[in-house]
Amino acid sequence: MQFVDPNLSRRLDGWYARAIGMDMPIVTYGHAGPAVLLYPTAAADYLENERFFLVKAVEPLLMAGRLRLFSIDSINQHGWMDRDLPVSLQARRQAAYSQYVEDDVVPYIRHVCGNPSERILTTGASFGGFHAANQFFRRPDLFRGVIGMSAFYDLSRGYFKGYSDDNCYRNNPAWFLPDASGDHLARLQHDSQIVLASGQGAYEAPDSSRRMSAILDAKGIPHWLDMWGPDVNHDWPWWRIMLPYFLERLGY
Fold it and tell me: Which terminus of the chain has a lower count of CB atoms within 10 Å, N or C?
């Protein structure tokens, strides 16, 4: 089965990621345009978004050179999705994953784009939306914005089990964003694009987006909270509609 147009520029790459101690693949779609980093859902791999036709949904933008899309592996199966691990180790692996993206993936994307100062838009659905938001809100100097689709923004509600340490704090937007200040806060307030989108149908958690919106409002951070209807479920057909819709409206 063809998941993307055979004429679409598509490149597989990868390397040993020292921060997390494993080989990590990456796929690039498109030949030109600003960079978008796409995360998989849950414990999936870097090609999941292609197999579920999310890449196909933005193919017209890719073919037109309006953006270049990068997709990476999740390591959730070695972290938050492995319930046998202590939370301290799960949090340590999350911190290592964030470091891998910041220290390895960002320079790679900048090299491919030929722009050493490229700021990258992040996006993803469900758990991928959490990672996209966490990465952006941690480092708005590296990332220009986020499109969170059917995402959650507070790991303490389902994963921390009452535990807390520095790795938890620094990788949980609901915890660290209220303390944002200085240049970090100014970048979020004046030079970022933030979309929080959720359906209100089966398996969606719209209150997660509402709570994050309230945190952003309290910090004076402009954003777009977009609540879709009760017919919009937590599933791929809707994310295939959401992603091109928001990319177009952000100017891609």
Answer: N
